[in-house]
Amino acid sequence: xxxxxxxxxxxxxxxxxYLRGDPAxxxxxxxxxxxxxxxxxxxxxxxxxxxxxxxxxxxFATALFxxxxxxxxxxxxxxxxxxTFCIQTASYLYWRRTSWKTAFWVVALIHALDNLxxxxxxxxxxxxxxxxPSASLLR
Length: 139
Prior knowledge:
The chain has 139 residues and is mainly α. The chain contains 7 helices and no strands. The protein has helices at 2-7, 23-50, 55-68, 76-96, 100-114, 116-130, 135-138. Helix 2 packs antiparallel against helix 3 (55-68), helix 2 packs across helix 5 and helix 4 (76-96) packs antiparallel against helix 5. The mean pLDDT is 89.
């Protein structure tokens, strides 16, 4: 992978791309982003549905739009998250037939699970800087 990255001249992420590792990052990754981005995903999907776009266009265009929102800090991030947004949009299409609420929660939970590893990394970064080992562990 590193050879492909060098060959494509993909820039390194800027320092602002990385999580600071505070509790707000974790809450944002596991609660705020899944809820807010799922609502945006559904709004774009429903808009394309109103224009009677074919299902495959609804899924791919919605995923492109949502992943494009992840591009401003570091554009390769949009490419990295595109497959998971395709999965989320296809899941919404499938579960929407059952109920809008069910479809929303399926999409939000997929998003939260996808953000779980970065949240664990942020938690590890936070605890490594702020939690001191107890004296009993050092003996």
